[in-house]
Design brief:
The protein has 2 domains: 45 residues; 75 residues, no CATH class. The chain has 123 residues and is an all-alpha fold. Helices cover 87% and strands 0% of the residues.
């Protein structure tokens, strides 16, 4: 009976040592990742040009994203307003390339300009 208990303990110890070696492998992997991150941070220390360039590019990215989002929304609203005026309300507006460009670039204001132009017969 004591022999069986000792065999069980040694089996548990051997599986524990396998688990510990697995944990040691994971720890070395994590420390390897930390050392790679540390090397990247050390490469940027004192390199103000690269840090400033990255910050400027990040700011420009968000400005362009904001502007393009507004331009796209304005263009969609302009085209929808032009089509509603033409097909729902029956306003005689020709769908020429100039009218479409003014409506896309101007949005609601462009459609208003096209509407005024059509009223005065300038189109």
């Amino acid at each position: 009976m004591i022999m069986l208990a000792l065999e069980s303990v040694t089996g548990n110890l051997s599986s524990l040592s396998g688990n510990l070696s697995s944990v040691a492998g994971n720890v070395s992997s994590v420390t390897g990742n930390i050392s790679a991150f540390d090397a990247a941070v050390k490469a940027l220390v004192g390199n103000w040009g690269m840090i400033l360039g990255a910050a400027v590019l990040l700011v420009l990215f968000f400005i362009v994203l904001f502007v393009l989002k507004n331009v796209l929304a304005n263009a969609i609203i302009g085209i929808i307003a032009l089509l509603v005026l033409k097909y729902v309300f029956g306003v005689a507006i020709p769908l020429s390339p100039l009218v479409l460009i003014v409506s896309v670039l101007g949005g609601i204001g462009g459609v208003a300009a096209v509407l005024i132009s059509a009223y005065f017969g300038w189109l």
